[in-house]
Structure formats: C-alpha cells, structure tokens
Design goal:
The structure holds 2 protein chains of 2 kinds. Chain A is α/β, with parallel strands linked by helices. Chain A has 12 helices and 14 strands. Chain A has a 7-stranded mixed β-sheet, with helices on both faces. A 5-stranded mixed β-sheet of chain A has the order 9-11-10-13-14, sandwiched between helices. In chain A, strand 13, helix 10 and strand 14 form a beta-alpha-beta unit. The radius of gyration of chain A is 19 Å and the shape is globular. Chain B is of the alpha/beta class. In chain B, the strands form 2 sheets. Chain B has a 7-stranded parallel β-sheet with strand order 1-8-9-5-4-2-3, with helices on both faces. In chain B, helix 1 packs antiparallel against helix 11. The longest helix of chain B has 26 residues. The chains are: A alpha/beta, B alpha/beta.
Chain lengths: 324, 342
C-alpha cells in the first residue's frame, strides 16, 4: 500500500485510464496548464497534450454537450464541472440527454461519460460555491451516482466510472482533496458500483454515511466506543446503484439507524435511504431512525457560521444517543 | 473578417458541373415528395383518421432544406435533428415504415416506440446520430461528435439542424463559440422558418440576421440559402463541405423558409398574405417545374412518383398499425446500457 491524498488518487485514476485507453480524454475549465482548480489534473496536459486534456471556455452546457456528443461516438470523456454549484448550468444536458439517450433511442445510443464535480463545503466559499445536492440525480433514471469518501475509493470508483457504459456523476469532496491522505493499493484495481463498504464494524447502531460524513461517522464511532457503544459505519459509495443488501444486513444486526450526509435535510439523500430501510427492514428496527444533515438553508460563508452549519460528530453523537 | 456568402441556385446548364445526373435530380425530387406526402399523411392520421395522438411538428414547406443538405452528404456523415425532424429522417434514408411505427409508439419503430415523433432522426445504422426535443440542445452535442471525428481522424462530418428559435438559446451561443474555438467539422444548419411556436423570428432575434449572429459573433464562415430551393441548399452544403475540408470547420448555413403548418399538428396557421406568398414558392412545385422545364421529367412521370410514394406511405401505416408494442416489463432494461469496457 502507498499513501496518497484524495486529489492524488483521482489524478492517478485519470492518468492510468488515459494510458490504458486512448478513447479517454478530459474536458473542462482550467484543467490543462492550470492543472485544475484543485490541482487534480496537474501534469496531465503536459503528458497527454491539448487534444486529450481540453481547456474550454466558461460554458458548462457546452462542456457537457460536447462530452455527450463525444461519448455517443464511442469516446470516454471525463467532463469536469469545477464546482457542484455550477452543475445547474449543465443540468439540462445531463437530465434530458445523457440520462435519457439510451432509453429513448430504444437502446441504440450509449453515453459512456464521466461527470466529475466537487462540493466545497467547509472551506468558507459561501452559498454559491459550497452546496451539495446529490439527491437531484436520484430523479434521473439512467445516471450512475458515485461519492467516494477515501483516496482508495476515489481511485477505484473513478476507474469504474470511466469504464462504465452509462453516464456517471462523480461527486468529490474538496475538503478532502489535500487534507486527507489514505492507503491506496499499489496494484491495479477497480471498485465496482453498487458495493457498499463497511468502514467500521459495530453491533449497536448503523450509521450510513455519505462522502465526507464517513469521516465524521468514524470519529463518532471512536468517541462512542469509550462509552461502550459500538457503531457500524456503512459507506454506500455509490447511491445509484445502491447496495441495499449491505445496508439492510447491517440494520438487521443493530436495529438502530442514523443516516448522515452534508446535503440539506428536506428531500435530501438521507430521506431516500431511510425510505428503503422503512420499506425493506422495518421489522428489524428497535427505534425510530434519525438523519443528520445540513439545515435547510444555504451554506453561510462566514467561517465560524459555516462550522456551525456543517453536520459533525457532535450531531451524530446526539442522534445516536437519542435513539439508543 | 468572417464571411457571409449568399448562394445562388444551380441552373440546368450547370447540372453537369455539380455532378447532378438525371437520376440524382429525380431522387431529390422523390425525397421532397416523400417528405411532403409523409407530413400530409401524419396530419390526416392525427386530425381525420384519429389514429395518432401526441405531438407531431410538421416540416411542410421546409422539405428542401433536409433534402438539399442531406443530398450533398456521404452516407457515413452524421445528422443531428430536431423536434421537427421527420424530414431529416426521411432524407437520411431511414425507412419510412420504421419512422411511421415510431410515431405509432410501436416496437418496430426506430426507437422501439420509446422516443416518438420528436426523435425519429435517431437511427445510427443510417447516420442518424441524435434528435433533440429540447430546442437548441443538440448544438453542443454536435460539437462533441465533431470533436470525436477530429480526434479519431475520421473523414466524415457532422450536420446539426435547428430552427430560428434555437439561436436564442444559451446552448446555441455556448455551442457555436466552442465549435469555433475547437475547430470541429460541423455544419450548423439553421432552418429559419420564421417562427418559434408563436414568436416571430423578426421580433425575437436582436441581431440583424441569424447569419450575422454566427459569422460576426463566432467567426464562423456562413452561407445564406433560399431554403425553398433545394438546389440552392444543395449548393450551399457543397460549399460548406469544401470549407470544412480546407479549414477543419465549422461552417454555418442559414436557410430561409416558412412554416406552412402550425407549430404542431394541433394548431393551424392563419392563411394571410405572407403565407400565400410563400405558398407560391412551395419547394416541391418549384423543383418539379424546374425539372419539367429542363425536360428531365414529365408531368405524368411526376404523377407516377406521387402515387408510388403515397402507396409506400400507406404500406408504412399498415406496418405501423399491425406492429406490436414493447411489453412494459421490458422497459426497465433500456434505462441503463449495462456493461463495462474491459
């Protein structure tokens, strides 16, 4: 095992896939000589040249459309939308075209497109550069949705996304890019979609955590261990497809559930996971389920206010104590 | 300085120069008639025979654009079409029985009945790459297709159709700019039929013309053609292709025409003076007269073509009516393509 930052792991995945498959290319804003707003593509322009690392104008709809068009032709574009908050500018292309093309062409068209983006919550970037809204993509049948929490997951899932025959929205967490390091296998590997990982085993309560909240959940588990509460942390890793089995098996074991995510609470991703458990494992629950999310308001830019806004370990501890 | 070139028609004396054999000219005429008769039948199927429901945006009066552009292409060239796309599909040689079955929502349709009237241009076997029902959104997608051709060093080109209304969308402006910056082999063909639903082009486009928009804002060489004269459109397309061969592209074409029917089959246009004036310039009649005068075809031969095509369309209707629908249980398998590239 080697130790990489989350950003380095992403760069490795991109580089390896570009070396492996000449159909893979990158398209987005400032990903070339600049190396990406968060330096995830540093060195790739120099290595692969301007035809495979394409710097574009500030035109999110055209970036996405160009990615879709190239994907229709059999290429494997990785289109980068610099901040998740800019996704709405390209959303029409994702929702109406990428997601629906295979279906509405009666299976003729394939869109092997990877859409990389990131959310910057926790970096005092303010309401228009911090939002996390993965649930939007849950209403777009035809899209895969991956949200890695660690460098090894980021690398393995990104490689899967690039090889997938379907469009994948791949949401990274900017707060993890350079601050978070983790072990990554030396050898070639991919992580298949629809396989959750139990990041920590436990027996009293299941915390299903998304992206950055996986780390808050692990910190929570450490803290509660001292109070003899055993927390199991499940990271779905992909929300579409969702590994219901791993989630339900964990619920069967613990009988207690908290779902944790950085998105705003109402209509958010936690609600969907709770619904799945409600429909498929209700009889195993010993207490009502809880969710830990951001409050229903835009992220404030003031650093101190943002700290209070972001769901954290203390919120998780409280939620768990409430239901145990 | 970006160029705007107004294209003049091809006169019979020049047919040879443009490799327009009699056979080729008659084929173009047949395509015009086929599109025209297809649209008339679709209208009848909706309004008289009551066999079709849902949307149908007819391209009556605009037949010469699809025909003229696509006649100048090679079979492997790719076409992106619009919600008003029956004509593009027919000109691209997509079998009309498959188009008709799609209109009927049947499994034998080009898209297995999952796309419908606004997506009949999707038929990859014949180079029908895509058809968007969202106005303008196919423009950036065409840029990506062009990018792929460029990167794979293939020698085909992409044609992207859209209407005057699309030139007011963000997708048009982002797409044209990016196409010009990335130099992709795409012909952008604006079918300026003067209307975006009820909105008139002259009341909604701030530029002096659509051609100026493309040429001056995005530095794309632009050709202007009479969209009701199939040979002018054909000639403009040949010029556009030559331009792409020289520069790598892109090229823009504004084809000026008129929407003779309503926005959709369910709305009727008002027959005013303007409508009457354009009616006199019906693309099928104009071209028929040209070929009759040049003694390439006789009136009676034309009648025979008309009848032959009507029979073919009636066969297509029977085929569509008799086709089954896709079982609902099978829909799920079309949501995801499945599989991973090894």
């Amino acid at each position: 095992m080697k130790v990489l930052t989350y950003a380095e792991a992403i760069r490795e995945a991109l580089r390896e896939e570009m070396l492996r498959d000449h159909d893979v290319f990158l398209i987005g804003e400032d990903i070339g000589t600049w190396g990406g707003a968060y330096k995830c593509t540093v060195g790739l322009y120099e290595e692969f040249g301007p035809e495979r690392v394409i710097d574009t104008p500030i035109s999110e709809a055209a970036i996405m459309g160009a990615g879709i068009g190239a994907a229709l032709m059999g290429l494997r574009p990785v289109a980068e939308i610099m901040y998740m908050d800019f996704i709405p500018l390209a959303l029409e292309q994702i929702l109406n075209h990428a997601a629906k093309m295979h279906f509405m062409s009666g299976g003729q068209l394939r869109v092997p497109l990877t859409i990389r983006t990131q959310y910057s919550l926790g970096r005092a970037y303010g309401p228009q550069h911090s939002q996390f809204f993965p649930s939007w993509f849950m209403n777009m049948p035809g899209i895969f949705l991956a949200l890695p929490s660690t460098p090894s997951d980021a690398k393995g899932l990104l490689k899967s996304a690039i090889r997938a025959e379907n469009p994948t929205v791949f949401i990274e967490c900017a707060g993890l890019y350079h601050r978070f390091k983790g072990p990554v296998p030396e050898e070639e590997y991919i992580i298949p979609f629809g396989k959750a990982e139990i990041k920590r085993t436990g027996k009293d309560v299941t915390v299903i955590a998304i992206s950055r909240m996986v780390h808050e959940a692990l910190a929570t588990a450490n803290e509660l261990e001292k109070r003899n509460i055993s927390v199991e942390v499940v990271d779905p890793r992909t929300l579409i497809p969702l590994d219901k089995n791993t989630i339900i098996n964990s619920v069967k074991k613990t009988g207690h559930v908290v779902v944790a995510s950085d998105d705003t609470k109402t209509g958010g991703i936690c609600a969907e996971i709770l619904s799945v458990i409600n429909e498929e494992a209700f009889e195993y629950l010993d207490a009502p389920m809880k969710r830990v999310s951001a409050p229903d308001m835009p992220a404030p830019s003031s650093c101190e206010l943002e700290k209070q806004y972001i769901p954290n370990k203390d919120n998780l501890v409280k939620a768990i104590i409430d239901i145990l | 300085m970006p160029s705007i070139t107004e294209i003049k028609s091809i006169e019979p004396s020049e047919f040879q120069k443009f490799s327009l054999s009699n056979e080729r000219l008659v084929h173009m005429l047949k395509t015009l008639v086929k599109i025209n008769r297809f649209e008339e039948k679709v209208e009848e199927l909706h309004l008289v025979r009551g066999l079709l429901i849902g949307p149908a945006h007819l391209c009556s009066g605009e037949e010469a654009i699809a025909t003229g552009v696509i006649s100048a292409l090679k079979p492997q060239d790719l076409v992106l079409s619009t919600h008003r796309g029956h004509g593009h599909a027919i000109a691209k040689d997509i079998p009309i029985k498959l188009i008709m079955a799609e209109l009927f929502g049947k499994v034998n349709g080009v898209c297995k009945g999952l796309g419908g009237s606004m997506h009949v241009g999707i038929y990859t076997e014949k180079g029908g790459l895509y058809a968007s029902a969202i106005v303008g959104s196919q423009i950036p997608i065409a840029v990506g297709a062009g990018l792929a051709i460029k990167s794979k060093k293939r020698d085909n080109i992409v044609v992207c159709f859209f209407g005057d209304g699309a030139t007011n969308t963000g997708a048009f402006h982002e797409g044209l700019n990016m196409a010009s910056v990335l130099k992709v082999p795409v012909i952008f063909v604006c079918e300026n039929n003067q209307f975006a639903m009820s909105m008139r082009a002259d009341a909604s486009i701030a530029a002096r013309s659509i051609a100026e928009r493309a040429a001056f804002s995005y530095n794309v060489p632009t050709f202007v053609a009479d969209g009701n004269d199939v040979l002018t459109v054909y000639k403009a397309t040949l010029r556009a292709i030559k331009d792409i061969e020289k520069t790598g592209g892109p090229v823009f074409m504004e084809c000026r025409t008129y929407r003779m029917k309503g926005h959709s089959v369910h709305s009727q246009p008002k027959a005013n003076e303007e409508w009457e004036a354009w009616k006199k310039r019906d693309p099928v009649t104009l071209f028929r007269d040209k070929l009759v005068n040049a003694e390439i075809i006789t009136e009676s031969k034309f009648e025979a073509i008309w009848e032959e095509i009507d029979a073919e369309i009636e066969d297509a209707i029977s085929f569509a009516v008799e086709s089954p629908i896709l079982p609902f249980e099978e829909l799920e398998k079309f949501v995801y393509a499945g599989g991973w590239k090894e």
